Amino acid sequence: MASLLRSSARLRSVPRLSAVRFLSTSPHLRAAEKPFFPDEPTAPKVVTAIPGPKNQQAAAELDQVFDIRSLNMLTDYTHSIGNYIADLDGNLLLDVYAQIASIPVGYNNPNLLKVVQTPEMANALINRPALGNFPSSEWAGILKTGLLKAAPKGLNQVFTAMAGSDANETAYKAAFMYRRQLERGGPDADFSESDLTSTMVNQSPGSPHLSILSFKKAFHGRLFGSLSTTRSKPIHKLDIPAFDWPQAPFPSLKYPLEEHAQENAQEEQRCLAEVERLIKEFHNPVAAVVVEPIQSEGGDNHASPAFFQGLRDITKKHNVLFIVDEVQTGVGATGKFWAHDHWNLTSPPDIVTFSKKAQAAGYYYGNPALRPNKPYRQFNTWMGDPARALIFRGILQEIERLNLVENTAATGDYLYAGLERLAKQYPEAIQNLRGKGQGTFVAWDTPKRDEFLAQAKTVGVNIGGSGANAVRLRPMLVFQKHHADLLLERIEKIFKL
């Protein structure tokens, strides 16, 4: 434990010293806005080409033992702080990609450093339990003070998992088992001999011909079940056997929204009608509909609250489960803790999956019948990780202490207004700007998108894309208005190159 404390102290001191080197008088830091990270740099710093010589050398070394073809940048995490990510050559970039939307409260957050220094965390790390068999006596308390404290409205139970794909996989399993339990007469009805023997040869009725309905351009993960609901890019799916499951069209909205209200409403009704048709007619009966509040990997595609309410109504009407995949949108990114809170649903989703900014993973549910009728049906060795649940509790404490959901909503409005101004000046560079009122979950389409992303690093910004042409912003919850000013200036600088 003493070693852990010494290590954490060293880690804490490095960003503090590093930040001082980069501090400079900045017109963008607003006097009325208190920075969440007082020692954070006031601006990015680019001192070499990116990647620089040290990064190139380290990447070559890594390539000998690890596939680096998806490499964005090798990172120096000891010198990264707050909203800034450091590389090995002394470059410090404003990070609005945040590890593919998965860093919630900043690099080297001092309060999370305190969480990892506790005996509770040390115990969770060195005695990692097989949670289904040997949970600690503290597990209920950890869940109640963390993951379940943040549970979506109407959902009071959680199944913990390892990653977003895993969360969706296990949610699908829950949906299929629930459906078959209903067909047998309820959770008390036992399996037939035919069920038991047929499933051992992958035949029905034990292995039923059921399906999960997803949407075109959706992304729900890269494991076998989740991959069959992923429709964003062929490269994700090639060569992998897939289930015979249906896909419905996701609304293709026209922007600005206020100028195309009637057309967009008609488009959403068209998509809803196709969802209902597939539920009624698809040859493998639909057990659940899964949808992202904002299709993220598929291009940052949005739909209105009315569309999602329509989905909820259709699934209720046909006794099909409604799964909301909040892996990328959850934990405050859209200006509400859960993106589906924007929809004002008349009844909650049946299942909500989560990961990324939670730094943990799993799914929430409320109906007790979504627990399988027998043990070991929803099970693996780890079933999540108490250490990650403790980190989430620390994240939640930071979110509450600093009002970070409210900050994200306000900063998002400010950022969006700035992007609207740039869109008027550079209409070819910012097309189909979207995400108004959705916190910092903002995107736009641009020609030569990949060239734009590369140029962003040269001006000190780490940013990502989605779909074929979209630039997506995924700042952390500690992203503030003065960071938005820096980002807007650098975006305009790229447009002027």
How would you sum up this structure, described in words?
- Its EC number is 2.6.1.19.
- It comes from Monascus purpureus (Red mold).
- Its cofactor is pyridoxal 5'-phosphate.
- With 497 residues, this protein is an alpha/beta fold.
- The strands form three sheets. It has a seven-stranded mixed β-sheet, with helices on both faces.
- It folds into two domains: 53-109 and 404-496, Aspartate Aminotransferase, domain 1; 115-401, Type I PLP-dependent aspartate aminotransferase-like (Major domain) (Aspartate Aminotransferase, domain 2, 3-Layer(aba) Sandwich), CATH 3.40.640.
- The termini are far apart.
- The longest helix has 22 residues, at 404-425.
- 39% of the residues lie in helices and 11% in strands.
- The model is unreliable at 1-29 (pLDDT under 50).
- The chain is built from 16 helices and 14 strands.
Biggest sheet statistics: 7 strands, mixed
How much strand? 5-15%
Domains counted in the coordinates: how many?
2
How helix-rich are the residues, as a percent range?
25-40%
User: What is the total tally of β strands?
Assistant: 14
Mean model confidence by pLDDT: 93
Unreliably modeled segments: 1-29
Strand order of the largest sheet: 3-9-8-7-6-4-5
The end-to-end span amounts to 52 Å
Morphology call: globular
CATH architecture identity of the largest domain? 3-Layer(aba) Sandwich
Integer-rounded radius of gyration = 23 Å
User: What's the total helix number?
Assistant: 16
Structural class: alpha/beta
Instruction: Fill in the CATH topology of the largest domain.
Output: Aspartate Aminotransferase, domain 2
For the record, the CATH class of the largest domain is Alpha Beta
CATH superfamily of the largest domain: Type I PLP-dependent aspartate aminotransferase-like (Major domain)
Secondary-structure element series: HHEEHHHHEHHEHHEHEHEEEHHEEHEEEH
EC number: 2.6.1.19
GO molecular function: 4-aminobutyrate:2-oxoglutarate transaminase activity; pyridoxal phosphate binding
Pfam families: Aminotran_3 (PF00202)
Enzyme class: transferase
